[in-house]
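hi! just following up on the protien thing from before. the input was this:
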Amino acid sequence: MVTNTQIQTFGTRFQQMRLTRGSLCVGIDPHPELLEAWDLPVTGAGVWDFSMRVIDALGDTCGFFKPQSALYEEYGSSGISALTATLRAIKDVGALSIIDVKRGDIGSTMSAYARAYLGDGPLGADAMTVSPFLGFESLRPAFDMAKNNGRGVFVLTLTSNPESAALQSAIIQDKTVSPEGCTVAAGIMSRVGRENAADGEHAKLGNIGMVIGATVSERLEGLEGLLETSNGPILVPGFGVQGGTSSDISQLFGTSVDRVVVSSSRGILRAGPDQRSLQNSFKNNLEALKLILMKQNSV
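and the predicted 3d structure came back as:
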């Protein structure tokens, strides 16, 4: 019987994967226009074929894959079958899966989401994305499941979509962060840091990470201290098509870049369906990212 103390934590696996395969995550986002560009049917079968081709091309070199659940769900049962096959294939190539579901709910419903995505069932992944905007503590079932099963959770914190700024930068009366209150994003960062504090005491990376967009530089100003003490993985979408660049990553995260994994989807996938072209696109993006991160770490 495997006990909790014998399960390797997600934070440990995350850092090991970063060191062996690099900090670039491929978002498996089977948008209808990509399926058409790859001459695939816009169906669950097309999504299955698309996903397998991506993993076949990049599974030996990419350490992180992030399938976007909604782009599978829209095809009903055939899409869900494709998603379960995708998660199995990611595991088979030795990479880590981050299922992008952005779930956030309360009570027994959140517990069911946690069991679905962080358990050992057909939709179980290495980590899931969650939304804290029903209250950070509402995510407790996911945090507990992640700890017990050696999985990870990425909490939406500062996202790239322009509509998010008004909410995530709003001031709340959270005196645990500051007597004058703090922004919603600062409150999330502070709570993530508390969740990961015990791991930090043992010089380990925690299991609770954050999603911070690659284009949020202005909104991150003044939060550098909370970012540094959060002691969790950082997932950074928005690299490539959405406007984020390698230099943005370096400037945004400073000394925290050693906890960052950058996600790119269409910036890599539009090079397909040719396998060699996909591999070259991934390699070029990874090398550009490595160069910037190496420069930052040498400062």
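The radius of gyration is 18 Å.
The first helix runs from residue 10 to 21.
cheers
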